[in-house]
Amino acid sequence: MYKRILLKLSGEALMGDKQFGIDNNRLDDYAKEIKSLYDEQIEIAIVIGGGNIFRGVQAESGGMDRTQGDYMGMLATMINAMALQAALEKLGVYTRLQSAIEMKEIAEPFIKRRAVRHLEKRRVVIFGAGTGNPYFTTDSAAALRAIEVEADVILKGTRVDGVYSADPEKDATATKFGELTFDLAYNKGLKIMDMTAFTLCKENNVPIIVFNMNEKGNLKKVVAGEKIGTLVTV
């Protein structure tokens, strides 16, 4: 069983069946899944994306400056992080929200030592605003924060049950991988995380598990060591 994990959630996952924004039912489901780990004394850090609200790359395609768009995307991640924090605290889970951009009225600044201390004191730490820099995704933020707080593993919660040879929603012949090495995933061109995040994980020996977050109980099973999803290691 892993002792300290970093859970990476996409912003799109919070939409549920909606086309935009946050589905409160999906948010509550995720909070309950996280609480089930919290009750098992697991130390939990979370990075969440903002694609359900705004994406910097979409802004660039519309003619907006990429840097401006990326900062707008960071603010979107903070909205999701605050929503998740509220859902967790409603269940009695102690949380701390840390931001890579100073927002002192709503979040602490990211400080590694403080984040680790919160984890040791059994507070769920949510990292918002990505890395605080344009041109970096929340995947990169997840990899960076996992390394900084010395997480045992990155759990990438998605709507599919692992890594496939092709998109299983579009290709019926796609096959699922149970385990992969970083090199094999790279050579096969599998899109697990962006290359910056992927390289950070490989060079710092941080394993990644890709699994279906929408299946009730999966998060707890993954942390307990059950063979769910796809494990990517050195």
Coarse structural class: alpha/beta
Order of helices and strands: EHEHHEEHEHEEEEHHEHE
Estimated helix fraction: 25-40%
Task: Name the beta content range.
Answer: 15-25%
CATH architecture: 3-Layer(aba) Sandwich
- The separation of the N and C termini measures 19 Å
Overall pLDDT confidence: 94
* CATH superfamily grouping: Acetylglutamate kinase-like
- Number of domains as seen in the coordinates: 1
CATH topology: Carbamate kinase
Radius of gyration: 17 Å
- The rough form would be described as globular
Explain the overall architecture:
- The protein is an alpha/beta fold.
- It has a single domain (4-233), classed as Acetylglutamate kinase-like (Carbamate kinase).
- Helices cover 37% and strands 20% of the residues.
- Strand 1 (4-9), helix 1 and strand 2 (43-48) form a beta-alpha-beta unit.
Sum up the structure in keywords.
234 residues; Carbamate kinase; 9-stranded mixed sheet; two-stranded antiparallel sheet; 37% helix; globular
Provide a concise account of the structure shown:
The chain has 234 residues and is of the alpha/beta class. The chain is built from eight helices and eleven strands.
Helices and strands in order:
Layout lengths: L3 E6 L14 H15 L4 E6 L7 H6 L4 H25 L4 E5 L8 E2 L2 H9 L3 E5 L9 H11 L4 E6 L4 E2 L11 E2 L1 E3 H6 L7 H9 L4 E5 L5 H6 L6 E4 L1
Parallel strand pairs: 1-2, 1-6, 2-5, 3-4, 3-5, 6-10, 9-11
Antiparallel strand pairs: 7-8, 10-11
Helix pairs in contact: 1-3, 5-7
